[in-house]
C-alpha cells in the first residue's frame, strides 16, 4: 500500500525572525500579553542568547545534515540556548522553518544537485533570537561503494510490497513509502505500546563460506532513525523463517555491558540480537543471545567500545552494522565500534528482523533509508501477493471442507504459515495442527531446538501444499484455524506463498485499504513543575506549608516532544493557575515563537485558605489548533 506522508512545515515570508504562522491561512497566531496578580512575580528576559559558533552542513541523498554546538566534537551549547530555529530553502529563499531542541537536524525531501541555503538561530526561553549563522549544501545520491550481496535504498516504491513484510502483535503498525520530507525512505508507523513493529526483508542474509583476512564472514547494515524515535530498536539475525521475536530481557539505564552478550532465554537458538536503546541523556548498544550460544576464546578489550553512547539523535539517520566474524560479533554505529562479544554463530543463513518498539503510548514513527548485506550472494525470492489471512483458534478438530465459492490460487506451488505463539502453561507442539480448507498440516518450530517458556512468545511454521491455497472474496481471504486444546495464544500470523516458476502474479481485484496515517503535527514541549521554598530549595515531600511565598520552577522538555513529532510547535507563552484561577501569564515570543526553557515564578500563598491546593502550568501554542501541554503540582497549606 502506498501512502504519502503529510509533512507540516513552519513558514515565514520574510528574512527576519517574525512570529511563525502555522495551520490554515485564516488562522491568526496567538499573541499573549504579560499578566500577573498582586501575589505573583514573573521572570524577566535577560540579554539575547549567543549565536552558534560553527555550523556544519553535510550532504546526503535528498538530505542535508546540520550540526552545531555540542553535536560537534569541539562545540559547546551557546549561552542562553533553550532551542533553535532552523530555516532553509532552495537558492536564496528561506522558505521553511523548523523549531528544535537539539543541535543536530536532518532536512529531507530535497532535490539532489540543487543548492540549498540554511540558517540557524539560537532561541532563549523568552523567544529572543541570536544573530543567524548560515551555510549551504547540495544533496547528492548515496554512493553505493560496498560490494553488496543485497541492498535496497527504497528509491523505487513499487518494490516495497514485493520485498518487505511488516509484522506485529495485532494490527498496530504500517510500513509505507515516504513522501515529502520522507521521500526515498520507508516509513514505519506503530501504535503498539511497548511491543515492536517488526520489519522483515524477504531476502535472506547469507554468510560467506570462507572468511576474509580479518575473519569477517558477513555484515547486515541498516540506516535508520529508529533508535532516536523508538524506545528500542533491534536487529535480529534468526537462523530460521521467523516473522516476530519479542524477547524478554529489558534494559535498565546504566546496566549495559557492551563487550559482553547478555543471555535471553526467549531468543531462538543461534539468534543474535542487537538492541539499541534511547534514554533521556544517553543511549546504549547491547548484544543478546540465547543460553548455550557458543563462545570463542577471543578476549574483547573493554576499551574498544564506549561504556555509554551520547543521546540518540532525533529523526536523524544512523548507520548500524552487525558484523559477523569467525570468532566474534561486532556492532558499529556510523562506522564506530559500540558493542562486541565473543559470539560464535553456527549457521550460514539467517532471517533479518528490524524491530521498532514504542514508548508505551502514542504513535512511534521511524524511517529506514537503506538495508544492505555483505557476504555470500543472495536475492529476494520471486514477487508474490500475500493472501489476506483470517485466522482463529479452536480446541476442536472439525471436519475438513472446501470453502464455499473458494478459488484455487493456481499461480502458487504452496506456502508457509508463520505464527508467533505464547504459552500459558505446558504446550505439546506435536499435538497442534492447522486447518486450511480441505487440508490439515502439522506445526513445527521455526528454529529447531527452541525452548517453549511459559509467558514467552516463540515462532513456529506450518507448510501448506498447493491444495490448501483456496481463497474467498475479493480480497483473496485464506481462512486458517489453529487447532490445539491447551493454554496457548496466537500473537501473530503471517504467510509466504511461493509462485510457480514463470507464473504471472496479479494483485487481487479489490485490494484492502487502511486510513491514511498522517505525520504527527508539531507538539509543544512538555512542561514539568516543582514548588520550592522562598530560598529556592526543594520542599520536603508531604510537608504542610505555612502561608508565605513559594517559588514555582517550570521547565519545558523539548527532546521528549521532538521525539514524538520530529519538531516542536511554536510556543506563545505560559499560564499559571492556582485552584483553576489564573495568577500569571508569561509571553515567550519576544522576537519570534519560543521553543522551550526554564523559568521561576514567585507566588504568594498568604491569601489562600488552609487545605489542599493545586498549581497548574499550561504551555500555550502560537497555533490555536495546537493543544496545550500541562503540568500539575499540589501542596497542603496549614497554620504556622
UniProtKB/TrEMBL annotation:
Residues annotated as domain Fibronectin type-III: 48-147
Record InterPro entries: FN3_dom, FN3_sf, Ig-like_fold
Superkingdom field: Bacteria
Gene3D superfamilies, A to Z: Immunoglobulins
Sorted UniProt keywords: Carbohydrate metabolism, Glycosidase, Hydrolase, Polysaccharide degradation
Renumbered residue ranges of the record's region Disordered: 376-407
Protein name according to UniProt: Fibronectin type-III domain-containing protein
Amino acid at each position: 500500500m502506498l501512502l504519502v506522508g503529510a509533512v507540516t512545515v513552519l513558514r515565514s515570508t520574510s528574512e527576519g525572525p517574525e512570529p511563525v504562522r502555522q495551520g490554515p491561512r485564516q488562522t491568526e497566531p496567538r499573541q499573549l500579553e504579560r499578566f500577573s496578580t498582586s501575589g505573583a512575580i514573573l521572570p524577566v528576559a535577560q540579554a539575547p542568547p549567543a549565536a552558534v559558533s560553527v555550523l556544519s552542513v553535510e550532504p546526503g541523498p535528498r538530505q542535508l545534515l546540520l550540526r552545531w554546538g555540542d553535536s560537534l566534537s569541539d562545540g559547546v551549547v551557546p549561552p542562553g540556548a533553550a532551542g533553535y530555529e532552523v530555516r532553509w530553502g532552495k537558492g536564496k529563499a528561506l522558505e521553511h522553518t523548523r523549531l528544535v531542541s537539539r543541535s543536530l537536524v536532518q532536512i529531507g525531501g530535497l532535490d539532489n544537485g540543487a543548492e540549498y541555503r540554511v540558517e540557524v538561530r539560537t532561541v532563549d526561553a523568552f523567544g529572543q533570537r541570536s544573530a543567524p549563522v548560515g551555510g549551504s549544501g547540495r544533496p547528492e545520491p548515496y554512493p553505493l561503494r560496498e560490494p553488496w550481496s543485497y541492498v535496497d535504498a527504497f528509491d523505487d516504491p513499487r518494490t516495497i510490497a514485493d520485498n518487505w513484510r511488516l509484522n506485529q502483535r495485532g494490527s498496530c503498525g504500517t510500513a509505507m513509502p515516504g513522501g515529502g520530507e520522507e521521500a526515498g525512505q520507508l516509513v514505519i508507523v506503530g501504535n503498539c505500546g511497548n511491543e515492536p513493529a517488526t520489519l522483515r526483508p524477504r531476502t535472506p542474509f547469507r554468510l560467506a563460506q570462507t572468511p576474509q583476512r580479518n575473519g569477517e564472514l558477513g555484515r547486515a547494515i541498516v540506516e535508520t532513525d529508529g533508535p532516536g524515535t523508538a524506545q528500542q530498536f533491534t536487529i535480529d539475525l534468526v537462523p530460521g523463517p521467523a516473522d516476530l521475536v519479542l524477547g524478554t530481557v529489558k534494559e535498565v539505564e546504566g546496566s549495559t555491558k557492551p563487550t559482553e552478550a547478555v543471555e535471553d532465554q526467549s531468543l531462538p537458538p543461534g539468534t543474535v540480537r542487537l538492541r539499541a536503546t534511547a534514554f533521556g541523556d544517553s543511549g546504549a548498544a547491547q548484544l543478546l543471545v540465547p543460553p548455550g550460544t557458543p563462545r570463542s576464546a577471543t578476549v574483547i578489550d573493554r576499551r574498544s567500545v564506549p561504556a555509554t553512547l551520547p543521546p540518540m539523535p532525533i529523526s536523524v539517520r544512523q548507520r548500524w552494522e552487525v558484523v559477523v566474524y569467525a570468532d566474534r560479533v561486532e556492532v558499529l554505529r556510523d562506522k564506530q565500534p559500540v558493542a562486541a562479544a565473543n559470539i560464535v554463530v553456527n549457521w550460514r543463513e539467517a532471517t533479518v528482523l528490524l524491530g521498532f518498539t514504542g514508548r508505551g503510548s502514542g504513535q512511534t514513527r521511524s524511517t529506514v533509508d537503506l538495508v544492505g548485506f555483505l557476504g555470500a550472494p543472495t536475492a529476494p525470492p520471486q514477487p508474490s501477493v500475500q493472501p489476506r489471512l483470517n485466522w482463529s483458534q479452536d480446541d476442536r478438530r472439525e471436519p475438513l471442507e472446501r470453502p464455499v465459492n473458494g478459488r484455487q490460487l493456481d499461480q502458487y506451488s504452496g506456502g508457509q504459515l508463520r505464527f508467533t505463539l505464547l504459552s500459558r502453561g505446558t504446550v505439546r507442539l506435536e499435538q497442534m495442527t492447522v486447518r486450511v480448507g480441505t487440508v490439515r498440516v502439522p506445526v513445527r518450530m521455526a528454529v529447531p531446538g527452541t525452548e517453549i517458556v511459559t509467558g514467552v512468545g516463540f515462532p513456529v511454521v506450518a507448510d501448506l501444499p498447493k491444495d490448501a491455497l483456496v481463497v474467498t472474496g475479493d480480497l483473496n481471504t485464506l481462512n486458517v484455524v489453529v487447532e490445539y486444546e491447551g493454554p496457548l495464544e496466537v500473537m501473530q500470523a503471517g504467510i509466504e506463498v511461493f509462485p510457480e516458476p514463470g507464473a504471472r502474479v496479479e494483485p487481487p481485484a479489490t485490494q484492502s485499504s487502511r486510513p491514511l496515517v498522517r505525520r504527527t503535527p508539531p507538539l509543544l514541549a512538555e512542561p514539568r513543575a516543582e514548588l520550592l521554598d522562598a530560598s529556592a530549595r526543594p520542599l520536603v515531600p508531604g510537608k504542610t506549608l505555612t502561608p508565605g511565598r513559594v517559588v514555582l520552577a517550570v521547565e519545558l522538555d523539548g527532546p521528549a516532544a521532538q521525539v514524538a513529532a520530529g519538531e516542536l510547535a511554536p510556543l506563545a507563552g505560559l499560564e499559571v493557575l492556582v485552584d483553576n484561577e489564573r495568577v500569571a501569564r508569561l509571553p515567550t515570543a519576544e522576537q519570534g515563537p519560543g521553543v522551550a526553557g526554564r523559568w521561576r515564578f514567585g507566588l504568594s500563598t498568604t491569601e489562600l485558605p488552609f487545605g489542599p491546593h493545586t498549581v497548574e502550568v499550561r504551555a500555550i501554542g502560537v497555533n490555536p489548533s495546537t493543544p496545550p501541554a500541562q503540568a500539575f503540582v499540589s501542596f497542603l497549606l496549614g497554620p504556622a
